[in-house]
Amino acid sequence: MRIKRHRNAIMLRLSTIFLIILVWSAVVLPLEPCAAGDEDVDPFDVYAVDGSGEQLLHITVRPSGNQVRVVKEGVLAMPGKPRGIARHPAKSSCIVTLLGKGAESPRAVTLVRGSDGKLSIAGITGLQDSTGYTSFDRTGGYFLTSSYHDGHCDVYQVKPDGVVGDRVSHQKVAEKYAHSVLTTPDNKFLYVPCVKEFNAIYQYSFDEKTGDVQPLEPFDAKPPHMFGPRHIAYHPDLPYVYFSNEQQLGVSAYHIAKDGQLAALQHATTIPRRSPYSAGVRGMHASDIAVTHDGKFLFLALRDFVADEDSVFMFRVAEDGRLSLVSRKRVGDIPWCLRVSPSDSYLLVSESGDEALAVLPIQHDGSLGDAVRLEWGSAVRNMVIQPLSGK
Q1: pTM value?
Q2: 2-387: CATH homologous superfamily?
Q3: Residue 365, pLDDT score
């Protein structure tokens, strides 16, 4: 681990000196032609949680022709250590969760975006249990959390002003390792995948009028042994859902039936593990997953904690939901979070080990071009994209 970090630090310093021009936290570099072709590429902002600095980072991304300008615009101090962040599906606001300290419970901070792009705190709510991954339902009326350490899923009402209200559902999913939660595009169901020894995909109905959550029968979609489903991505138009597999290092595709039950379509692979999974031992682990808004391509991040296999794998999505591998792109150390830009022109990667944000152009065939990088200055893991055009 120390050898890898030392080597990466040296490479980063050399590349910073000889290859990248940094001027007042701004990066401007030419890019290869992206999927937008001759069309205008929408500008957007990025908000990222910096737990080490107890702050929220504001980044602006401004494509222009064959160039993109990435600027660290500013920071907003947080009243605690932030962990998760979720963007409201219809409003210019987001919710950041703060870790609890000692007897203090976790909190949810509602942030509202002003016309200048800056966020301000609209309200803070104490949460009843631990949190990890966070999301909104499709209406924005409910805020969902899952707990990796305690294995539960909670649903909170969101008030008209965007501030988190009462908890309306609490589901004990597993003993631990409940990694994420996300409602289906029609907002009728939600799934909670569990990694490692608690390998499962738990299936629930969701009532968007009340926030009520009920387990389906059968409850577990039963992924293959030790696949470790971690994060979720839905096809935007068709009844398919995809899970990144932390231990298997690939992607599983499922068909969503009308009753919410999942049926396995395919288990796509990337590269083989160096050795079998061993509890408590860090090696190669898949992390995040993202699908383009047009449903044509899927991206999977692979983290390597001991060597240099850190990569993003690109898949083409067929009309029947199945995946075919397009290519592999080597990226910086420990790619944790993936986000697709509003116009499907860029993939954003939070390279937490290198403390950098990478902005990579998405080519017409789904492959990725060379990255523009901006140093976060800390090991940022979670981020959201805020469109500026309303798309």
Answers
A1: 0.91
A2: YVTN repeat-like/Quinoprotein amine dehydrogenase (2.130.10.10)
A3: 96
